[in-house]
Amino acid sequence: MRGTNSMSKTQNILIVGGGVAGLAAAIGLHNKGLKVEVVEKNADWSVYHVGIIVQANFIRALEELGLGEAAVAAGFPYKGARFMTMAGDLIAELPGDAQVDGLPSDLGLTRPALHKVLTDKVRELGIPVRLGVTFERFTDTGDGVDVTFTDGTSGRFDLLIGCDGNYSQVRAALWPDARPQFTGQGVWRYNVPRPADLEWSDLYIGKPGGKAGYCPLTETEMYIFAVFEEPGNPRFAPETLAAEMRQRLEGFGGRLGEAAQAITDPALVVYRPLEACIMPDPWYQGRVVLIGDAAHSATPHLGQGAAMAVEDAIVLADELAAKDVDTALRAFMDRRFERAKLVGTSSIQLGEWEMHPETAGDPVALTRRIREKLAEPV
Ligand SMILES: Cc1cc2nc3c(=O)[nH]c(=O)nc-3n(C[C@H](O)[C@H](O)[C@H](O)COP(=O)(O)OP(=O)(O)OC[C@H]3O[C@@H](n4cnc5c(N)ncnc54)[C@H](O)[C@@H]3O)c2cc1C
């Protein structure tokens, strides 16, 4: 029987968005015995081939979904993060702190590899996913949400979870003034061969405006990233991207300087301006809740976006399985808000320090402090 008042538990849930947060929520809720379905706007359900860096709290969260080993098998475990000078001399090592017995801490993954781990599980569990479909409109009636879909169908749900990412249409429908803001920096990415002895992700700091580095992704690949100030939020002509990225890497030595020579094909450069949106508490209104980037998109400085999305999903599933909707959503916020906000504001802070070195604090100390904080249970 479907819940009909605010004191009942949620039974029938719509997830809008089949990315990291949406798929993790679908798996977590299904595992708790709740009925879920997913709509995903992208008909191909494809993700572009870039790298994603995750840390011990991500592996711990995936382990809760029964996917820790699958994620590790799909990625490349490495030892942790090292900070380097521009010339490539070691400043500090932040070794990973594994939180699941038998599994590593830090992991490089390609985005398609992570997507496959999650979609394989969703298919195995038989969770319904409609591709190329989203909501046209929804109405919260107090005890449920009536949804009309773009494929002409409609449905009634106890809860709608907005997992539709940084440019969330669910957020736009309920919080029209909340929009991602350009932080002043953009991120450049390029995959190159991995030197066989590379076992760390190295961050080279000290160049005004940003930083750069690399991270192993697979046995054979690593990716180079460069986060730099981009005054005026420019758009770049596609054929110029390799030269633009190489220019930002000028002045770096060590392994980064060598690896940068391989950035030659403009079609393989992925450039994104950094746009962040950290929603205030609460991330819900009535029977609609936001999780993942829809609720708190940060910059990639701490490599925590995917982990925060999966942590949101498991905490929400936990609470919804145990409590009535209103109590569960409040309890969800109490467990998630400060933690996600800390990650978001600290990521943005690191970027601010890069753009304004004259007022900068210590990025190594801040990164270490956040890593320690995130090792605490969710
Ligand atoms: C360049 C870049 C590099 C990053 N690097 C890292 C990293 O190294 N480590 C890390 O942890 N995080 C990283 N992140 C952040 C990470 O990708 C996100 O935090 C994470 O994907 C959030 O998951 P999500 O499900 O909330 O959003 P997404 O993964 O963006 O998923 C949103 C999904 O919703 C779908 N959708 C959108 N609108 C609708 C709609 N109206 N209806 C239905 N479906 C819809 C989309 O097609 C997509 O499938 C990076 C992000 C960027 C942009």
Explain what you see.
By secondary structure, the chain is an alpha/beta fold. It has one domain (12-180, 275-374): 3-Layer(bba) Sandwich (FAD/NAD(P)-binding domain). It is 34% helix and 27% strand. The chain has eleven helices and 19 strands. It has helices spanning 20-31, 56-64, 68-74, 111-124, 169-174, 241-248, 254-260, 293-296, 305-322, 325-355, 363-374, and strands spanning 12-16, 35-40, 51-54, 76-78, 80-84, 90-95, 106-110, 129-131, 135-140, 145-149, 154-157, 159-162, 181-193, 201-204, 210-216, 221-229, 270-278, 284-285, 288-290. The chain has a seven-stranded mixed β-sheet, with helices on both faces. Strands 8-2-1-12-19-18 form a six-stranded mixed β-sheet. Strand 9 and strand 10 form a beta hairpin. It is globular. The two termini are 31 Å apart. 47% of the residues are buried.
Short recap of the structure:
34% of the residues lie in helices and 27% in strands. The chain has 378 residues and is an alpha/beta fold.
